[in-house]
Amino acid sequence: MFKSLRAPERLFQIAGWGVTLVFAGFLNGLGAKIVADLPGVDGPLTLEQFVDSSALASNSTAHDSVKLLQVDVQSQHERADLVLTASTNVYHSSREAFDNWIATRTATTDPAQDPEILRRTRQLDTMQARQRVAQAAVEALDTRQLELQQRLTAIEAERRSLTDAAAGPYSRAVFRTELKAFGMRLALTVPLLIAAWWLFTRKRRTQYWPLARGFILFALFAFFFELVPYLPSYGGYVRYAVGIVLTAVVGHYLIRAMQRYLAKRRVVERQTESERRQALGDEEAIKKMNANLCPGCERPIPGGGGPQSSTNFCVHCGMMLFDNCTACSTRKNAFYRYCPSCGVPAASFPTADAGA
Ligand SMILES: [Zn+2]
Ligand SMILES: [Zn+2]
């Protein structure tokens, strides 16, 4: 592919991009530093900061004491369970022994008058009474456990109502903080965007464009990475609204640019072939020819437009694309200043001797 730019010019272009990127990088670093050091922003808020602290403290004290009591009652309960099991076992085994003994006694004498039977029966009654006492102790501890559990539930409900009461002020404070952070970022970013827009529209063709381009990249970076993520959401409304507005603005400028381009092309297409040829820079024209586009109307050249094709004129606008050297008759690109075969200045460039 033919490169019409001089080699050093290409190097300067690459170096220009280097300057642009390095400049943008340093500006970004500085901008991030300034944003990070903004006062009073980004203090992380927690829900606990908005709960009534004395009520919360007494609530957790009550909670802890009930928990301690629960542990205590639990161990008492375990001991009472052991006592109950032991007394039940003693009663049952004694009862079994008594039943066996009475079975052997029944065959011999009248059991109702036997003092031994009365003694053993009283013994069994005492054992049963002990078992009932142990049972009652276990039941009392059951009641105590239930009562403690209910107190704990009440305490936890109170804690939940305390945090629920704090939720409103907390979310309002979070919203205010977000809005403040966004406002400060907006105040920093909007001037950057305005300056970038001014540079883009006014300084695009100047020699300081690589620096201006660096500043524009920086402003875009600041917009997309330092401002957009901090947009208050309002449940997504703001983000969509900003997206719609930005798309509308970009679309508006795109349509205007398209219309300007078409108007310019219409003006150019009304000119004569030689007027248009004069207005074209030869390097620009050769670049378009290499992209198989007519330099006059920017439509594709039918048949590809290469040196081997037979197309000499644009079929859309009549621009001469290929001609023959006046000296050696070699077919050549009509925008070459000199014949590539014999070096004679091209007839269509009468001032070619003056140099580029
Ligand atoms: Zn054309
Ligand atoms: Zn020639």
Walk me through the topology.
Layout: H1 7-36, H2 53-106, H3 115-202, H4 209-227, H5 237-270, H6 273-279, H7 282-290, E1 322-324, E2 331-333
Antiparallel strand pairs: 1-2
The structure holds zinc ion (2 copies).
Describe this structure in words.
The two termini are 21 Å apart. The chain is rod-shaped. It folds into 3 domains: 1-231, no CATH class; 233-270; 279-356, no CATH class. Strand 1 and strand 2 form a beta hairpin. It has helices at residues 7-36, 53-106, 115-202, 209-227, 237-270, 273-279, 282-290; strands at residues 322-324, 331-333. The protein contains 7 helices and 2 strands. By secondary structure, the chain is an all-alpha fold. The chain has a two-stranded antiparallel sheet. The longest helix has 88 residues, at 115-202. It binds zinc ion (2 copies). One zinc ion (ZN) is lined by residues 294, 296-297, 299, 314, 316-317, 319.
